[in-house]
Design a protein that fits this description.
By secondary structure, the protein is an alpha/beta fold. The protein has eight helices and 14 strands. Helix content is about 20%, strand content about 25%. α1 packs antiparallel against α3 (about 110-120).
Length: about 325
């Protein structure tokens, strides 16, 4: 299975054009905005000492997130874990009061209120925030069929969302000789390579299940953001799997929560092309209507990951067909 943010129903069709003896290879991808019936959503929440305000702010905007999911009649599971892999009662385990279900669904009374409580996981966690590996452990054996049993369904779309004001410190023992969180930055070469983590995540989506990875983390330049540090490792995971990326320094999380909800409900805002494209050659149609290149109400293209992003009124509606034609970029 090709893991990515889109359901690629037709691989690139290739041809050659000869213009003034210059041969150009042309590709074409067809995507469908296929509605999702089931979705398992895992919030990975930083519980270090500086995160109380951000946890509360996300909880306050839960309705912006869940609205499109409920409106689409999607069968959802929502779970919360922390970035702490040191404490035995956390370490990838779903966080919930002892007398409540481990994860939330539409049958849980006041699931919105319970989410607000659960996303506020506290601020006593490890200063080595290993959110990438925490999610992987939560969705892998032995936890997925042990402590976290029932949360993950094989046919459901899987959405992982990181919330942190630090960079990921997944080291898998690489920093064991050091004592505090400073080692995450001072000895970053000992961290588990992001490429390794991307490859591990690909095993989390079974069969035709779709995997989305998103992040709300510190931007590249985060000065003046109450001590938030950039989160490039989390951002790289979101880029690799075509997820939504938000800025934890934002004053209002309404927009990012709405966008996350839309993507989870099947209204994807980005699609990964089957081949890298020459940006200036890209042409896009949604249900046979041309869509312009426009960062506000059209599309933009990420050349590093060959991902086409849609924005504003340009986002394809549920059930639509998206055709993309382009010249395939050569080496370099």
């Amino acid at each position: 299975m090709r893991v990515g943010p889109s359901l690629l129903l037709m691989l690139g069709l290739f041809a050659c054009r000869n213009d003034n003896e210059v041969i150009r290879q042309v590709g074409s991808d067809l995507f469908y905005q296929v509605p999702t019936d089931q979705v398992d959503i895992l919030w990975v929440t930083d519980n270090s000492c500086s995160m109380a305000d951000e946890q509360a702010a996300i909880g306050a905007k839960f309705e912006s997130f869940i609205g499109s999911i409920v409106d689409s009649n999607i069968d959802f599971h929502i779970g919360v874990i922390t970035t702490d892999l040191v404490a035995a009662d956390q370490a990838g385990k779903l966080q919930a009061p002892a007398d409540e279900p481990l994860y939330l669904d539409a049958n849980v009374p006041d699931y919105a209120g319970r989410f607000r409580e659960r996303i506020s996981v506290g601020t006593q966690g490890s200063d080595r925030e290993a959110g990438i590996d925490a999610a992987f452990q939560a969705l892998s054996q032995p936890l997925v069929s042990g402590f976290n049993e029932g949360f993950r369904r094989p046919e459901a779309t899987l959405s992982i969302i990181y919330l942190s004001d630090e960079n990921d410190c997944t080291d898998r023992g690489g920093l064991s000789e050091f004592e505090d969180g400073k080692a995450c930055y001072e000895h970053g070469d000992q961290l588990t390579p992001v490429k390794t983590l991307i490859d591990d995540y690909k095993d989390l989506a079974e069969g035709e299940a779709r995997l989305l990875v998103s992040s709300i983390v510190g931007p590249e330049i985060s000065e003046g953001c109450d001590g938030a540090k950039p989160g490039p490792r989390y951002s790289a995971m979101a880029e690799a799997f075509g997820g939504v990326q938000g800025n934890i320094c934002a004053q209002d999380f309404s927009a990012i929560m709405t966008e996350l909800g839309l993507q989870v409900s099947g209204t994807l805002t980005n699609f990964q092309l089957s081949q890298p494209a020459v940006k200036d050659s890209i042409a896009v149609w949604v249900d046979e209507v041309a869509v312009p290149e426009d960062p506000d109400n059209g599309w933009t293209y990420d050349e590093a990951y060959a991902i086409l992003y849609f924005h504003g009124a340009g986002v394809p509606p549920r059930g639509s067909a998206i055709l993309v034609e382009y010249e395939i970029a050569g080496p370099g």
